[in-house]
Amino acid sequence: MTHEELHDVARRQPFKPFRLHLTTGETYDVRHPDLIMVGRRSAVIGIAKARGGTAYDRLFQIDLLHIVGAEDLPARSNRRNGK
């Protein structure tokens, strides 16, 4: 994935949470635009512990050559207990 393609996914308005798929089989969920920084050759992904958090607790740097795709995450339901 090019940095332009990833930047477009990360900065679309309105923002939609998405999942990155890597060549290793790993996935990373990006749930807020403040938790991704896109560079020319790599991206930095922040993972927040708190649901809906915008400050990261863990940080991963990913080479863009390893990103094979991005998919939108399903919208979270506000319902409790699946009802």
How does this model look, in words?
With 83 residues, this protein is mainly beta. The protein has one domain (3-72): SH3 type barrels, CATH 2.30.30. The protein is 11% helix and 36% strand. It is built from 1 helix and 6 strands, in the order αββββββ. The mean pLDDT is 92.
Main beta sheet, described? 3 strands, antiparallel
Mean pLDDT across residues: 92
Going by helix content, strand content and strand pairing, the class is mainly beta
DSSP, total strands: 6
Instruction: Give the terminus-to-terminus CA distance.
Output: 38 Å
Strand order of the largest sheet: 2-1-6
Task: Give the SSE map.
Blueprint: H1 3-11, E1 18-22, E2 27-30, E3 36-38, E4 42-47, E5 58-63, E6 67-72
Antiparallel strand pairs: 1-2, 1-6, 3-4, 4-5
At a glance:
Helices cover 11% and strands 36% of the residues.
Search tags:
83 residues, mainly beta, 3-stranded antiparallel beta sheet, SH3 type barrels, 6 strands
